[in-house]
Design goal:
The protein has about 350 residues and is α/β, with parallel strands linked by helices. The chain contains 16 helices and six strands. Helix 15 links the parallel strand 3 and strand 4. The two termini are about 40 Å apart. About 25% of the residues are buried.
Length: about 350
């Protein structure tokens, strides 16, 4: 892919600056070399201490800044300021200086700040959401920061990649490549992804339930809570905003609780497991009918019921499929339609 080639070119060009290299390794989670300084410490070295995770007394930080005649929100550059912030993340004066810096710098440096301080990710995304006609770089940064998956304009990102030339561009393109890798997982829609994962779950979990390494204990799936835990690991890595086990709004003093809520995609997912003590699927048919009557309160577009039957207790799979339908519910303002899907995975 063109943007991956551009990333390698930018690495060779830009990672010869010690300060940005330390910033780069910090946001990548790579341990930086310890900074060894003889004599007087300057502001750049102070920042390197921060990126390397070395500790220094707060009063000494102030002294060094005064000795170097540095006005934090003024002449000090963004990379120095962020490194010094990492030395004392509770220092309100430094936080204020970063806030002033964020307001002063261009879009790319705003993104640099946002990669160290999460609060500025939201601020930057809100700024971009207010704009109608986004430039290529604005569209790419919005694409990176927005937790939703959507198709980006190919011409716009190609235009940006062509002009990318500095370290900030390297960071943006690497984040873009990562988000694209997640987006490429999507088959057609998030719902299709979820269904695909559920359909492949039984076969995939054999790696830890049956074919584990000899010196490691096998993972035993005893009930639906074990299934939920495994699925939570999978879903959370792809959709970080997923909400496990959230109560429905109360109606008539009663509430219900779905196993997974994908709020941005308007999907409710409920997990059932038919266990050894269960004779057949009848009790689960009853449960699903009750859940359908409760989960509409989430106002989803889709209700997905996953029936995990590793011991093949189901006698009539069609009895589940008979529950698949489109149901309508009406609130104060509109009539909404929910599509119900039942996935039955039997042991084999």
């Amino acid at each position: 892919m063109v943007y991956l080639e551009k990333i390698e070119w930018l690495k060779e060009k830009c990672l010869n600056n010690e300060l940005v290299k330390y910033y780069y390794k910090y946001i990548k989670g790579i341990e930086n070399d310890t900074v060894s300084v003889q004599g007087k410490i300057n502001v750049k070295q102070l920042a390197l201490y921060g990126y390397a995770g070395q500790k220094i007394d707060g009063e000494k930080i102030k002294t060094i800044l005064l000795q170097n005649n540095i006005i934090m929100g003024g002449r000090i550059n963004t990379y120095e300021l962020l490194g010094i912030y990492l030395l004392d993340t509770n220092n309100e004066n430094i936080k204020k200086d970063i806030e002033e810096k964020f307001a002063q710098v261009d879009l790319k440096l705003k993104f640099i700040i946002a990669n160290v301080m999460d609060i500025y990710k939201n601020k930057l995304l809100e700024l971009l959401k207010l704009k109608r006609d986004l430039t290529p770089i604005e569209q790419i940064i919005k694409y990176i920061l927005d937790e939703k998956f959507y198709t980006i304009n190919v011409e716009k990102y190609a235009e940006y990649i062509e002009k990318a030339e500095d370290f900030e561009d390297l960071i943006i393109l690497e984040k873009f490549a990562y988000k694209r890798s997640l987006n490429d997982i999507n088959i057609v829609t998030p719902k299709d992804n979820i269904v695909s994962i559920l359909n492949n779950f039984h076969n995939a979990n054999k790696v830890i339930t049956r074919d584990r390494r000899k010196d490691h204990n096998e993972y035993i799936i005893k009930d639906e809570y074990d299934v939920q835990d495994l699925l939570n690991v999978i879903f959370k890595s792809i959709y970080p905003t997923i909400v496990p086990e959230e109560n429905t709004p109360k109606v008539g003093g009663t509430t219900a609780r779905a196993d997974f809520i994908f709020k941005e995609f308007e999907i409710v997912l409920e997990i059932k497991m038919i266990k050894g003590k269960d004779r057949d699927e009848k009790e689960f048919i009853r449960q699903i009918k009750e859940d359908i009557q409760s989960y509409y309160r989430y106002e989803p577009k889709y209700m997905i019921f996953y029936i995990y039957d590793p011991l093949d207790k189901t006698k009539d799979e069609q009895s589940f499929k008979d529950l698949e339908k489109k149901i309508k519910y009406q609130d104060k303002e509109s009539v909404n339609e929910i599509e119900t899907e039942i996935i039955v995975i039997r042991g084999h």
